[in-house]
Automatic annotation (TrEMBL):
It comes from the Eukaryota. GO terms for molecular function: protein-membrane adaptor activity. This is Armadillo repeat-containing protein 8. Residues 8-24 have a biased composition (Basic and acidic residues). Coiled coil: none annotated. Keywords: Repeat. Residues 98-108 have a biased composition (Low complexity). Residues 1-24, 82-116 are annotated as: Disordered.
């Protein structure tokens, strides 16, 4: 009995000693990474020079730390779940050796001590601060345009960032998730990375998931305002990443085929207010950013081959066209309206002309915008020019035997007569890419 108890005390000491050493190492690494992150808050030129010299050595180390921390956090979460499920008598597996005899003869305090030691020795030491700072350092590197191609093609970077974003929100710091999304969005600015990133397994699905939090029952009603702010910030950054990736011509068809991607963009385009609004902290700003990115991504996707234009017009039994009309009429932001009109212009072709012309309210909307009298600055001129160009493009794409051709011609004649009587400044129209 005494020998067994002595053995247990020795195991207890070794477990606590090992755990203390691990915590010491973790704290030392955490402080080193924190100091390094402060250093990289310098200008982009200095960060570029540093990345050229040591970036390829530092990046694998940071990714190794991140992956280790993710494993530790997941193991810790699993241990906590075990503790919640099991009763005190079932903490340790039942055995038929002398250990079971020891368990039956120990007092209650000894059982409690054994239970605590069991969990201490089986929990890995982790520091959420490491995830924050490591992703922040990689984010500093991603500020450097010349480094983004090298970073994106690193064999472990995108998969590691994806793992952070996909991890459960209850044990991965929100800042680390936002940093990871921001890095992906910046890497997607490089034209050399766009096709590769869009083809990375699961990456587009991860971005879409961040944009569809309104469809998740658990996230539809966040428990706190800070949770909601994190969600709309993540949504805005993910939308920016999709906007950047949609610029590449090779990505337009594959992205259109990603499940729920277009629906996600539609949802963001129509989300103008929130029950959490009016509390400051930039709620309206984040929602506006999401709408701008979503409308820009739709504009880019619409600049696709004729077959895709047709399918986009038919998407969701016309839900895309309905949403574009709603945004063009009701969105308070001129930039969003401009991108929406550019989307309608890009959608116009011989295959889609009849669908667009027959869409209830579309010709009236374009006519109204093309003949608007307000000319504050160049914004109304630009909207009017885009609307008029879209009508002209429809005229060229529509054949005379279409049932809607006469309606289009009537609207064009009225618009042309009004515009000819008003001097409008020529403006640079928006292309299909930013």
């Amino acid at each position: 009995m005494k020998s067994n108890k002595k053995k247990f005390n020795q195991d207890d000491y070794r477990a606590n000693s090992h755990d203390g050493t691990s915590k010491g190492y973790t704290e030392e690494i955490s402080r080193t990474v924190e100091a390094l992150e402060m250093v990289y808050r310098c200008s982009a030129n200095y960060v570029s020079s540093s990345f050229t010299r040591v970036g390829l050595e530092i990046l694998p180390l940071l990714l190794g730390i991140i992956n280790k921390e993710l494993c530790c956090l997941k193991d810790s979460s699993s241990s906590e779940q075990c503790e919640d499920v099991n009763t005190e008598e079932d903490v340790r597996p039942k055995r038929t050796t002398s250990d079971s005899t020891l368990d039956s003869t120990m007092s209650g305090s000894e059982k409690k001590s054994q239970k605590e030691t069991f969990y201490v020795s089986n929990q890995n030491t982790s520091s959420p601060n490491l995830l924050r700072k490591c992703t922040k350092i990689i984010g500093h590197f991603a500020r450097v345009g010349s480094a983004t191609e090298t970073m994106a093609y690193h064999p472990d970077l995108l998969s590691t960032l994806k793992n952070i974003i996909d991890s459960q929100s209850d044990f991965v710091p929100s800042e680390a998730r936002l940093n990871s999304l921001w890095i992906i969005a910046n890497l997607a600015c490089n034209t050399e990375n766009m096709v590769m990133m869009a083809c990375t397994p699961g990456l587009m699905d991860t971005l879409v998931k961040q944009c569809r939090f309104n469809d998740d029952k658990r996230l539809k009603h966040p428990e706190s305002f800070s949770d909601y702010i994190h969600l709309i910030r993540a949504q805005s950054i993910a939308a920016r990443a999709m906007l950047n990736l949609s610029w590449a011509p090779e990505n337009k068809i594959p992205m259109f085929e990603v499940d729920n991607l277009v629906d996600s963009l539609i949802t963001m385009l129509l989300t103008r207010t929130s029950e959490w609004g009016g509390r400051g902290h930039g709620v309206s700003t984040f929602l506006l950013q999401s709408r701008r990115h979503a409308s820009g991504a739709l504009r880019n996707l619409a600049a696709a081959p004729r077959r895709n234009k047709f399918h986009l017009c038919k998407h969701g039994n016309g839900s895309l066209l309905n949403s574009l009309l709603d945004a063009a009429r009701n969105d308070p932001d001129t930039s969003v309206k401009t991108r929406v009109l550019a989307t309608l212009h890009n959608l116009t072709c011989a295959d889609s002309a009849e669908i667009l012309i027959s869409e209830p309210g579309l010709l009236d909307l374009l006519s109204e915008l093309a003949t608007a009298n307000e000319t504050t600055g160049n914004t109304e001129d630009e909207l009017g020019t885009l609307a008029f160009r879209t009508l002209r493009t429809m005229e060229k794409a529509a054949s005379s035997d279409m049932s809607c051709h006469d309606s289009l011609q009537k609207v064009l004649n009225e618009v042309s007569a009004t515009r000819n009587s008003t001097v409008l400044k020529p403006v640079k129209t928006e292309s299909s890419a930013e």
